[in-house]
Amino acid sequence: MTSFHDGKGTVHPFPLAAERASAIEDAFEHIGLGLLLFDSDMNLVSMNARAIYILKLPGGALRTGAAWRDLAELGAQHGDRWPSQVDIHSRGPFTWSLGGSDFNGFSNPLPGGGIVVGILEPSVVRITRAVPEKDTPVPEGGPADSKSMSPELISLAEDLMAARDEARKAYQKAAESQIRVEAIVESVVDAIITTDGSGVIKTFNNAARIIFGYDPDEAIGKTLGGLFLPHGLNAHADLFSGDVAAKIQSVLGRSVDETGLTKSGIIFPVRCTVTEMMLGQQRMLNWVIRDVTEDLRTREALQQKTSLIQLLHTVAEAASEAESVAETIEVCLKSVCAHIDWPLGHAYGCGDNVAIGSIWHVDDEIRFGQFRSLAGPSPAGEDGGIIDRVALTGEATWFVDTQNAMSAPRGKAARACGVRSGFAVPVLADGEVVVVLEFFTPKSVDPEQSTLQALTQVGGQLGRAIERKRADETIRTMALQDSLTGLANREQFQRQMPPALANSLRVGRNVALMFLDVDHFKDVNDTLGHPIGDELLKEISKRLMICCRETDTVARLGGDEFAIIATNLHGPDGAATLARRIVDSLRAPVTLDGREIFITGSIGITVYPADGLDSADLQKNADLALYRAKDEGRDNYQFYDEEMNRSVQNRKTMERGLRAAITSGAFELHYQPQVDIKTRAVIGAEALIRWPHPTEGMISPMEFIPLAEATALIVPLGEWVLRTACIQFAKWRDAGLSLPRLAVNLSGVQLNKSPITDTVTRILAETGMAPENLELELTESTVMENVEAVIPVLQHLHDMGISIAVDDFGTGYSSLSYLKRLPVDKLKIDRSFVSDVTGNDDDAAIAQAITNLAKTLRLRVIAEGVETEEQLLFLEQIGCDSAQGYYLAKPLPHDVFAQWLKEN
Fold first, then answer.
1. Are 235 and 228 in contact (CB under 8 A)?
2. Which residues contact 801 (CB under 8 A, 6 or more apart)?
3. Residue 230 CB coordination number (10 Å)
4. CATH 3.30.450.20 is right for the domain spanning 2-171
5. Between 120 and 583, residue with greater pLDDT
6. pLDDT score of 329
């Protein structure tokens, strides 16, 4: 093994290839002359022992890296004379003067850079070409060349230089590696401790010092067992004493969990890994020890978090699947008790949610069932108990001693049943405490903030579940409840019918279905406005609820339509009593916005099972009964009977015939003259429709016109009447017959649901009839039904030159303020007043009033239904302008009317 000096007096070995290294070493040290190797900068690389001996410089002077110049100056200080660098580079020979003797010197540059310098003692006279063995005679070969070195020596020097470079690099690399390893060992967070086979500590890094609290000087030389709990308290404590190397074979290379012991006596969890290594012939053990306190805390926190997430998931899942909030709370209590391993859980509803009541979960019924029975919730607001405190503050609370924390009788119950500790958390929904959750244990447990925080999250989850339940309930309520009145809506009404009928069969009682319409409600909306109408509907709803029982269902089907399902009735009499009570209650005036409003209601009644065996039949028949109530003058109730059904069938038959008659043009127009009362001159005629049915004979307009209006067939029928009348008027005109004006009746349906102005304009254009010859008659109720919409339509027709007359005047309820705004030319006194003007003072007064009103408004007046000369004379006396009726002429077919017109 070759070595070199580090300049600090230390000799370092370095490796060479075994065989070659041995030869070079031997040759370099035993060549018999001093050799020095310099690099290209003339800094010393290496020297052999012979050179050190010859030069005799002070110790350490001949060190690696020493400069030639410094060495020469040092020699001069001792009286020696060294050759100059010029001499060295001249390749010699040159002379040394050392210690008073002269030495021969020579040099030779090396191909790889650097130079080799040799020193020959005076006794050495030649250098052989081969390196001799020690003590081998120098063979003859002539004197040494004084000007150069042998090739063998140069080769030897080159090899030595290369070997020294390799050694230096290897040493530097090893030193750097050692530094890195030591830095790593000192910087890691794990304790790294080396022991011998018996567990005696040999090395102790910085992390070990931090973890165990011992300085390295204190720990090195002690046994490893002092760093762990003593035998008996630790699963692997016997590993750290005795023949440790033998004992650790079972755990070699794997981790074992132990309990460490610091210098100050603190115990803590550690995880150890041990490996073994050989240092020469000695077995050494390398221990890596980690403080896993934080790891265990992290793991525990992760487990708690995972468990909490699972708990929250369970609560959320229960909330989505449960039918009620109470069911969700039951699952929550059970899950929380399992999560914290406590046997008792309790939930109490607060405030508006007290209906949730008191819900318990008890794991051990035998042991803790009595506590549930004795405890119960503390009465709200009486004693400031736990539930009250949490409900008031909205904050969780922990009680180590329930006996002191809980008020009587709960404290006594806790004492009797061995309940020690507990805590309570609030459940908030929409910002208010709606439930308080309590949990109890027989153990004495100090406050655990993590548990409170976790259960507060559970409370939040449960609160959100309750909010969702509330929202769902609100949505369901909105879906089944009328938003204006709060009554059941049509959907809820339809849902309630089947179970009501089923229950009726089960208990042997009757069910009555009532349909109610508010009479003339549209007039209230039109005259007073929709806000007043809405308030009126609310008041009606209240009255209906007062009249009905809690077991009855009151629904608003839409608009002013209501329905009532009255159950458990003893026959129709009970239904009649309820209907009578409702009709009477609606007659009472309602004061809204400072106005007194009078209303009435019409009710149709069907009774199950007599009037129908299912909901559909009952509703259909209740509708029929309602129509009968309206036909009977409203403000009454009517029971369904079979005659109504026959009437409906007749109505359907008539409707089919009516449609066919419109399609085939099977109707006729008759014309009734209108005469000036004073002059008896014909001033016009009214076109009146007739239906000559092939089997039923002549059908009165009183029968089919209401049906046509109800089915909207009045629109095509009315258009046929207008066109036919205009065509006939044109024919009379062309025939030379003089008729100033022709009156045609206009239905409210035509006025409101068809483009009447376009229709009239088109027909006038098609028939060539002048607008001035046309008079349109509308009933008073038609005009007033939707007066604001009617006014612009009538104004348009009036502007065209068409005359407008109000028919049946006095039978409705015209507002004078509207009447003066209407573009009306004529008022028509209804036949009901004319028929008895000579025998009834009231009718006479009404006729007189209408005439006076017309004169005041500068309108013409015509009376219909004049059947006697006395009536005609009375009308003439009160100033009525014109008349029509059977006394003058009955309605005539067009050809008969033409003949009558010629004659009159």
1. no
2. 770, 771, 772
3. 12
4. yes
5. 583
6. 86
Q: How far apart, in whole angstroms, are the C-alpha atoms of residue 352 and residue 220?
A: 73
DSSP 8-state symbol, 477: H
| Encoded amino acid at 12, one letter | H
For CATH 3.30.70.270, the residue range(s) in the chain are: 508-640
Which amino acid is residue 541, in one-letter code? S
Q: Is the peptide bond before 609 cis (omega within 30 degrees of 0)?
A: yes
Residue with the two structure tokens 């119960």: 376
Contacts 24+ apart (CB under 8 A), 123-129: 124/32, 124/33, 127/32, 127/33, 127/153
- According to DSSP, residue 179 is labeled H
Provide the CATH topology of domain 663-903.
TIM Barrel (3.20.20)
Peptide bond into 409 cis (omega under 30): yes
What pLDDT does residue 741 have? 96
Q: How far is CA 123 from the centre of its chain?
A: 108
For residue range 790-832, list pLDDT tens digits in order. 889 999 999 999 999 998 886 655 556 667 788 999 999 999 8
Amino acid at 464: R
The amino acid at 79? G
Going by C-alpha positions, the residue among 206, 208, 166, 204 that lies closest to residue 191 is: 208
Q: Which two tokens stand for residue 715?
A: 């629109």
> How does strand 590-592 pair with strand 561-569?
unpaired
Would you say 85 and 132 are in contact if contact means Cβ atoms under 8 Å apart? no
Homologous superfamily of the 508-640 domain (CATH)? Reverse transcriptase/Diguanylate cyclase domain (3.30.70.270)
By C-alpha distance, which of 178, 131, 170, 180 is closest to 4? Answer: 170
3-state secondary structure of 50: helix
Greatest CA span in the chain, whole angstroms? Answer: 190
Question: Mean per-residue pLDDT for 867-896?
Answer: 95
Residues 322, 330: Cα–Cα separation, whole Å: 10
